[in-house]
Amino acid sequence: MSGGREYRIERAVGNNVILTVRVDTGKEYVLFGKGLGFEAKGLQTIPGDDPRIEKRYRLDDKEEAGRYRLLLEEIEPESVAIAERIVERIREDMGIPVSPKVYFALPSHIQFAVFRLHSGMEISNPFLEETKLAFPQEYAIAAEAARMIEEAFGIPIPEEEVGFLTFHVHSAAGELSAGQLARRTKLMAEMIALIEQEGEIAIPRRGSDYARLVMHLHHALDRLAEGKSATNPFADEIADKFPEMHRIAALAAEKMEKELGLPVGKNEIGFLAMHVHRLLEAYRQGDN
């Protein structure tokens, strides 16, 4: 066994995670593996080629390492344990690897949510409907996670909190953090409110039209974030034929550009104008 490949065990974080220091470099690492934390208890080191290690995450600077250490000191074991059960459920249901950071972000979120609920603080989530529509699979897993938390802590979990858990479920399997997802969902809600205000309509939140609009905005934001562009051969024709709808779509696009710091092309605006046209036709006629 090479001493340079050994990790000194600093602390077990639940059953599947350990905080370590690589012996030869002194760099701090978080090691992940099923049962790794449980089996590491009582040991001083673990070899780098241990087959139980599924993933390793290096804490690149002292500030980051200190932040994780402080986080670990503040998180209760019950929050870590329930978070591990939820992460395992995410892995099983979605069939993809999870981000190492979820092992820290999720228990921290659970502990704070339980504290707020125990303290009688209201949890408000104005973007719940958008969250449920944009992330249906993640929401279903979050609902199961909420039941786990209820059983573990003996406290009812409101639907609003399920919405926030949904962000962590999606973040566990993606590149965006829960905070970024929350901001994106807020942006979608603000764009829809703008469309309603400018178009002088009200779209029923439980209807299929609202669901289609949310999904369109969700995919549009994904395309912009990934640097992809939509192809719309009718973009110029739509702008000429439906100037009011195009104006409203352009205002929504400006909001997107400001939030993302990315340009929104005429093709994307054209597609959104088509949705706006259909909505205005449906709901303005409904008022007559």
Automatic annotation (TrEMBL):
Pfam (any one): PRD
Molecular function per GO: RNA binding
GO BP terms: regulation of DNA-templated transcription
Domain of life: Bacteria
Signal peptide segment: none
Gene3D superfamilies: CAT RNA-binding domain, PRD domain
Residue ranges constituting the PRD domain according to the UniProt record: 74-179, 180-286
InterPro entries to which the protein is assigned, alphabetical: BglG_antiterminators (IPR050661), CAT_RNA-bd_dom (IPR004341), CAT_RNA-bd_dom_sf (IPR036650), PRD (IPR011608), PRD_sf (IPR036634)
Matching PROSITE patterns: PRD_2
Keywords per UniProt: Repeat
UniProt cross-references to PANTHER family, sorted A to Z: CRYPTIC BETA-GLUCOSIDE BGL OPERON ANTITERMINATOR (PTHR30185), PROTEIN GLCT (PTHR30185:SF16)
Official protein name in the record: Transcription antiterminator BglG
Organism from which the protein derives: Paenibacillus herberti
